[in-house]
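Exercise 7. Given the components listed, write out the predicted structure of the assembled complex. Treat all entries as one system.
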Amino acid sequence: MLLVASGYSIAAETICVDDATTFGVSYTTDWQLSGHEKEPARIHNHETNKKTVDLEFFAKTGKVAYLLPEKNVAEAWIKQPKNQLVFLRAFPDENRGIEYTYGDLLSLNVNLQWEQVKRPFLPLQIAKLELLDESVDQCGKLETRKGIVNGQKTIVTWYPELDIVKYRLVNDKNFRVETRLSGWKNKAESLASFDKITAMPTMDFADIGDNEADPFVAKMIRQGFVAHVHADGNVSYPGGHQH
Amino acid sequence: MNYISKLIIATITVLIAAPVNAYETADEWYNHGKQTLKQALENVHNKKHAKNVILFVGDGMGVSTVTAARILEGQRRGEAGEENVMSFEKLPYIGLAKTYNTNQQTPDSAGTMTAMMSGIKTKAGVMGVDQTVIRADCASSLGKSVPTLLEQAEEAGLSTGVVSTARLTHATPAATYAHTPERNWEDDNDTPASEIAAGCKDIASQLIDFNFGNGIEVAMGGGRSSFMPNTETDPETGVHQGERLDGRDLTMEWTEKYPNSAYVWNKAQFDAIDPNTTDHLLGLFNRSHMEYNHDNPQDLGGEPTIAEMTGKAIDILQKNEKGFFLMVESGRIDHAHHAGNAFRALDDTIAFAEAVSIAMDKTNVRDTLIIVTADHSHVFTIAGYPTRGNPILGKVVSNDSSGDSSGIETLADDGFPYATLGYTNGQGFGTSGDMRTIGRQDLTMVDTTLEGFHQEALVPLGSETHAGEDVAIYAGGPSAHLFHNTVEQNYVYHVMRFALKRKLGW
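Answer.
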């Protein structure tokens, strides 16, 4: 079985989801460069050409959030009526955030559907990959699929009923990215995380231009956090988006 | 006869209405110049007192924005575009305003709008207070408030109105009624508790607690969240809460405070408002800023256009025989420029011109001073040598050696075509959300006229910036002739005040 081959399984005592509409998962992603291509700037590490990146994902009805503890940034998508989205980028250290209204996103030419942002790792594309294996573990039905995603060889084991990836391996001639689901968050933990992210004072993206003197805004601009919203919805975290 | 028909002598009106290229022979160009001169000679200064004053502010609408929007408006009618005249360009008087703040060479909207509304220049970031104030320091602002023309008009018994496509608590509209050392203190959630304790009030509450005259008659725009308690769910999105921490529902307070009043938040409610029976109207059509004009059809609850808001506001205000003061802001020209998206900036400018046209239709040039200006400019350029009638949002197609269109895209020294419109700084080229693309791009296969195109920029910045050059002031009606040269921006207030001197005193 592929999961065994990967040497990975979830601990038997793992509690999965107590509410399929409100839950969270943690991921660990290992990057390893194997070729001569310049590695992505965001994971640059000359000494080892390796990096481990953690991601926490939270889902709630009509809302999802991606938290990158290392970068101390959280990115949330909120679904409004008519499938219109609002994007929130929050910075827990600063206790502030930037909100991109639906109109702001349109002005940035980002016109995403909820299906594109509601889970990490591009589930719409995963569902189209070749089915290799089906199994069940303590968290539910599993499928293992393989194929090409964004031009890269990908093998994935996921919970299709939750659209949640359990294991993913992306092999490119220049790098190898291996992602593992490392833990689950229950409803209470997930709600608390949402509250923390969405309660931060926010500034509209449209107002950034009038507030460049604000040290927070200036810092976010310098770090490239202001304008960078990926058009495929899988935002700033490594492993979620590959060019 | 409407405002402009009375204003412009018939001869020039004929020329403006003439089809494209109608005077494109040497004789016709010559005659056009002569007719323009004749109209200027026949123009008589209106030295009467104004009954009404309408101040239109295109936020960030620098001269290059006006030029490009003029061309786009004409091209949308199938014309070459350059010869087009937008509504406010028909006003007979024009001047230039120096826009700098007391502490900034290139200004922000808070300081510039304070100049126009209160007659003094002040610092960037503060509104309705003088330049001695320390930004975001409440204690330093106490006792430093300066009256606004809107307050003075209310005290004199005039009706008053504020209309904006931005949040009503944003800098430009707020400078008509609020006094604060920090433009971002839009509600009590934005205002530090220490500053509230020091005696400063958030901007939204200042609009509702406004106690001059019989209160503002019309306030329409975006920014609903700052008027709602954080325990209330937004009626339009259903997924957001209000912002206020003090529990106040300012929309309810508006209707409780004023007789014959109404609060509306969507287009259907707006359309249902009868100006004859409504004396105080609060319209908050979006949680934050209203949509760009181009995106208006996608708004969840439906929003009126800036022209529709202007028309409704005038219908309500002109019931007062004593007269009225109205400020109308197109707030999102500025935002689209900041995003590096010329399409939406120009589209909003055209919508703004329609609002001015509505005002001209509904008022009389003999008693209504109309001023159209900008608070500041943007680093927005019209470049290259595109042939006449070249799509203003398109790539440059120059003329050949004989002076006719070459019919092919002109290439820069790097071998790539380039767009006519660009920015000196900002996020730069982009056709998707991933916009941080530094350096020249090959635009050969890119349609730069599409709504999602972001013009190239020279200096990479997270947000395109304001520019420091002068902005135009277009004016018609009583005292409009007082705009005729280069002036400090605070002069705008003094002309409006002078025009209303019979009512406000002098």
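Discussion: Residues 119 and 494 of chain B are 6 Å apart (CA to CA). Chain B is about 30% helix and 15% strand.
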